[in-house]
């Protein structure tokens, strides 16, 4: 596994890190097997979040024996200093460590929100205090807006930024990635497989690792996925012209309005598994994997047509997707 310095930090991270969303769906024992395989195969950067239910606890239980050899990274949605201070203490307890290597302000989405976290009494104050107290070492920010990530870089207040760059969401290459590199700020690639939209996983990871991202953090919930991703980390070679053409074709298939499976819209009060339903729709409509999609849809209790259009999910989607309308369209299409 190749390693790289994460920006100006002292963390020499494996180029393939571990994204902590999918282990939420595993038992503690199953998560232990996947995390153990990641450790065994050289992954040393593990990223979780307070918002990922028991992901931090699973990492804490499985990784505490390897603490000296790995970097722990997590994040929280709290926007005020007292609330974030509590979150940091909870993360420390969950992760079974005395100190967290990287703590990030999670999913900062608008200029007003950025102003709030950086203003008096804002969450950034808690990061600085926790660093002074030796509870965390490096400070980061995550988000889906290029404007916000750029402002965070320009502020000089953060050591890392985390954002969704992949062969479908390439707009980050214009300004954001060059600005981060110039400022010596670590770049952490979330959603490297565009939430499952990209079929050629190794090609996507190579794309990101050869275009300015220090570390990619695909979510993993099976040892086979760990093996596949780790193979890329051993030698992330630039893509050939033919591989780039194939990825460009995937980009045109998906356009901009598709679900990246971040799960921020969940839970749905009507019991719909929103990201999984959109994955089924995508595979049915864009890849024509109709039998695969219909078999999975049949196994679900709540389907597209069960969306009550209550709108509760709408403000939670960082991509501004018109979820109820998309459900209605998918109900007509996937039959
Ligand atoms: S609009 Fe539909 S998908 Fe969204 S929360 Fe309401 S019922 Fe669930
Ligand atoms: S609909 Fe939006 S919030 Fe929900 S999983 Fe998809 S991208 Fe994320």
**Strand percentage:** 5-15%
Number of helices: 13
Class inferred from helices and paired strands: alpha/beta
Order of helices and strands: EEEHEHEHEHHEHEHEHEHHHHH
What can you see in these coordinates?
Helix 3 (81-94) packs across helix 5, helix 8 (201-209) crosses helix 9 (223-234) and helix 11 (274-285) packs across helix 13 (323-333). Helix 6 (146-155) links the parallel strand 7 and strand 8 (160-164). It contains 13 helices and ten strands. Helix content is 41%, strand content 13%. The termini are far apart. The protein has helices at residues 28-40, 55-63, 81-94, 111-118, 123-132, 146-155, 176-183, 201-209, 223-234, 241-254, 274-285, 290-298, 323-333; strands at 3-5, 12-14, 18-19, 45-47, 71-76, 100-105, 136-142, 160-164, 186-190, 215-216. The strands form two sheets. Strands 3-4-5-6-7-8-9-10 form an eight-stranded parallel beta sheet, covered by helices on one side. It has a two-stranded antiparallel sheet with strand order 1-2. The protein has 335 residues and is an alpha/beta fold. The mean pLDDT is 94. The structure holds iron/sulfur cluster (2 copies).
């Amino acid at each position: 596994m190749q390693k790289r310095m994460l920006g100006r930090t002292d963390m020499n991270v494996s180029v393939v890190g571990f994204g902590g969303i999918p282990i939420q769906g595993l038992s503690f024992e199953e998560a232990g097997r996947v995390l153990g395989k990641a450790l065994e195969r050289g992954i040393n950067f593990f990223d979780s979040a307070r918002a990922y239910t028991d992901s931090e606890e699973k990492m804490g239980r499985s990784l505490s024996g390897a603490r000296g050899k790995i970097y722990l990274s997590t994040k929280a949605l709290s926007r005020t200093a007292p609330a974030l201070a509590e979150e940091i203490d909870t993360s420390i307890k969950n992760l079974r460590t005395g100190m967290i290597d990287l703590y990030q302000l999670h999913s900062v989405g608008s200029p007003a929100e950025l102003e709030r976290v950086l203003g008096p009494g804002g969450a950034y104050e808690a990061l600085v205090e926790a660093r002074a107290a030796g509870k965390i070492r490096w400070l980061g920010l995550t988000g889906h807006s290029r404007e916000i990530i750029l402002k965070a870089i320009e502020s000089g207040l953060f050591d890392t930024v985390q954002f969704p760059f992949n062969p479908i969401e390439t707009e980050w290459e214009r300004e954001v990635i060059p600005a981060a590199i110039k400022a010596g700020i670590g770049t952490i690639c979330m959603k490297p497989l565009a939430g499952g939209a990209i079929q050629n996983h190794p090609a996507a990871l190579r794309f990101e690792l050869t275009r300015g991202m220090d570390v990619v953090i695909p979510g993993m919930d099976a040892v086979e996925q760990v093996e596949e991703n780790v193979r890329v980390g051993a030698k992330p070679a630039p893509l050939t012209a033919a591989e780039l053409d194939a990825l460009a074709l995937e980009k045109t298939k998906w356009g901009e309005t598709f679900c990246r499976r971040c799960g921020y819209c969940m839970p749905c009060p009507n019991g719909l598994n929103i990201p999984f339903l959109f994955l089924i729709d995508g595979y049915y409509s864009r890849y024509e994997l109709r039998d695969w999609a219909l078999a999975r849809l049949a196994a679900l209790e709540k389907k597209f047509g069960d969306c009550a259009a209550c709108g509760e999910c709408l403000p939670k989607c960082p991509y501004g997707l018109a979820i109820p309308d998309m459900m209605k369209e998918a109900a007509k299409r996937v039959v």
